[in-house]
Amino acid sequence: MGSFFRKDLLVFWRDRKEILLALFLPIIIILVLNTAYSGLFNSDSESVNIDVALVQEDNEALGLERFADAVNGLEMSSIEKETLLEQAAQITPVRLIDDFFSNPELKKWINIKELKEEEATELVETGELDAIIKIPEGFTYEVLSHLMLDEQSEVALTIQAEEQSTEVSVLRDVTQNFIDTINLQFALGGASDAEAKELELPQGGTEVVEGVETFSMTQYFTIGMSTLFALFISQTIAIKTVTEKRERVFNRILLTNSNPIHYLTGKMLATFCLTWLQLVIIFTSMQFILDVFTEKPLVFWIGLLAVITAFALTVAGLSALFTILTLYLHDSNAVSGLTSLIVMMFGFLGGSFFPIQGFPELLRKIGEWTPNGLVQTTLIKLIQFNDLQDLMIPIIFLIGMFIVCLTIGIAFFPKRGRI
Amino acid sequence: MLETVNLSKTYKDKKAVDEIEIYLDKGESVGLLGPNGAGKSTTISIISSLLKPTSGDVRLNGKSTIKDPSEIRKVLGVVPQEIALYEELSAYENLKFFGRIYKVRKDQLEDRIQEVLGMVGLKDRQKELVKTFSGGMKRRVNIAAALLHQPEILILDEPTVGIDPQSRNHILETVKKLNEEHGTTILYTSHYMEEVEQLCNRVYIMDHGKVVASGSKAELLSILSSEDTIQVHLSKTTDALIEKIKNMEHVRQVDETSDGIRIITKKGSSILSDLVHAAEKEKSQIVHYQVEVPSLEDVFLHLTGKTLRD
């Protein structure tokens, strides 16, 4: 096994073209993409500019009046009623939203203006605005009843957009963050009344990605391109089998009575090491060149290394599958074409070319379970939360993929030279 | 030691190998001759356990090798027609890799590598990458790789194709030495009759997937013992003249060659006067006339109707 491993590493190392492709090309592409798209996609807060309309359909005074009627109809002391109404007057939801978006920090990159719904819709359609935040009729009453009287709420704050974009995603995150903060404040405020349960401000509307941090496009390109090129290592190593077969080296190997598992394991080990090194080199280079993961804690780097290791294993398993494919297909062009197609398909579905967050639901789900897609989603989560627990299931899946590939590889390895 | 029993291999409707029976005794050097497409390489692949026969058997010391090829693989060294080496590795690195996977003992591997490199005369070039070698040098490393585990039987499939005379001589010397000094059993296929004549005690001639003749050189030459081969060079060769020669008494076969025509006649019959007469009638003259001692090449031509390089 060690002999096969050393041989495969040496053969790869001697092929300068492959080394250039595996190491330098992804770095160059990441740099080019980062430069070319930084203005378009960069979601770093200092460069994002979001134009949004606030459509106010709620009558705040009427809402407060309805809430007062509702409170007065309750069986409680007048002091309690008075306290509730005073609190309600202080936290009117519409004003809170207004105040939030008037924050000078936020105003630097979120331009909000109050418009009528028809006008706002028109501007969103023409692309002049990114999204609409709509405060529906009855919002004040519903929110106050929900928060203070524990009533069920039927209206919700909605964000409407013509299409999915980074801007819309950021806006959702910011809004969700705001709502979470309000909920938390209420929950903490209620704790003194002995009933410390978390209250929820109805938010509704389009889907919101959990979490508060966004990732930068530089990080996205680094992950997307490095995982894509890592997949290509599995193809490169497997394609060497074509040469081994064509030049009858493979037959000579068979004649040595070598265990097929050793041959496959050699290929997988070489793929694993090369993929691992490739990813570490790319990530390290990008960190030095672009400072791609700024001020990340140690836990992030440990997590990154763990994911890279698990992914390198999956790529190694994939190389076993591609090797078997190479041994079964007699046409080397067909092998090359098919394996390239598989890698490119993984690249597309896994979001190496475009973020999978922008994909339709079904494609996104599929993409998330491709090896590179899973790594991408996992690393983005790691960037956002720095939580190692989030890595457990993806790593188990990546190792699972490796075991499945290895099993298929061993089961289908030819016992003789030709099939 | 090694024998094939009614060995056949069919691809779709085509019989590549048709009930072949050959045997190799220990220490023998046996040649396998045949034109392109005769089925030599298929036969070798089956014997080497790389290909399963459609029917028949390959037996090593009486034991079938078809179901479990591991035993024959241990004693077999195969030198394929192709350069079965890693071009990106040096000769030494290639031999080290193959030595390891042949499970040559670690403490013996280095000596063994140097020994086989010495055999093929490439000790001083061992650190160079195979891709920088000439065709002949590559073929020599190709042979060295098959010798690492000291095989009892060595199968060589046209090991001298397309190489320089120096490398060719070196290879022939190596094979001869292996057979005579080390007692290695040899199965040698070649397009070059003189190589087989030089190296082999016995020869099998294959055509269309069948063995059409076999035996020692003397036995094969006796096939032509009833015939004479006459090489004639004429000042002018016409179709009419060839037709006339064909119709002469005692003439069995006429072939045009690059030097003129080759006539096979009944042994001891003289056609010279008839030939002079016929040439005169066609306004031609005999420039050269020679009765040849038959060679294996003539036997081959007689049996297959083709030259070896067809």
Automatic annotation (TrEMBL), chain A:
Task: Kindly indicate whether the keyword Amino-acid biosynthesis belongs to this entry.
Answer: no
| Membrane topology, as annotated | Multi-pass membrane protein
Domain annotation ABC transmembrane type-2: ranges: 168-416
> Per its UniProt record, what InterPro entries does this chain match?
ABC-2_transporter, ABC2_TM, ABC2_TM_bact-type
Q: Where are the transmembrane segments?
A: 20-40, 220-243, 264-286, 298-328, 335-356, 391-413
Show the Gene3D superfamilies listed in the entry. abc type-2 transporter like domain
| UniProt-listed PROSITE patterns | ABC_TM2
Its annotated compartments are: Membrane
Under the heading Pfam families, the entry gives: ABC2_membrane_3
The alphabetical list of record keywords is: Membrane, Transmembrane, Transmembrane helix
Tell me the PANTHER family matching this sequence: DOXORUBICIN RESISTANCE ABC TRANSPORTER PERMEASE PROTEIN DRRC-RELATED
Q: Give the protein's recorded name.
A: ABC-2 type transport system permease protein
Task: Name the species this protein comes from.
Answer: Cytobacillus eiseniae
TrEMBL record, chain B:
Bilayer topology annotation: Peripheral membrane protein
Question: One Pfam family name from the record?
Answer: ABC_tran
Q: Which residues form the ABC transporter domain?
A: 2-233
Q: Per its record, what are the GO molecular function terms?
A: ATP binding
> Which key words tag this protein in UniProt?
ATP-binding, Nucleotide-binding, Transport
As for subcellular location, the record says: Cell membrane
Whether ATP-binding counts among this entry's keywords is: yes
PROSITE patterns, A to Z:
ABC_TRANSPORTER_1, ABC_TRANSPORTER_2
Q: Where is this chain primarily localised? A: membrane
Where is the secretion signal located? none
Keyword Lyase included in the entry's annotation: no
Q: Extract the PANTHER family matched here.
A: LINEARMYCIN RESISTANCE ATP-BINDING PROTEIN LNRL
Name the family. Answer: Belongs to the ABC transporter superfamily. Drug exporter-1 (DrugE1) (TC 3.A.1.105) family.
Query: Protein name, please?
Result: ABC-2 type transport system ATP-binding protein
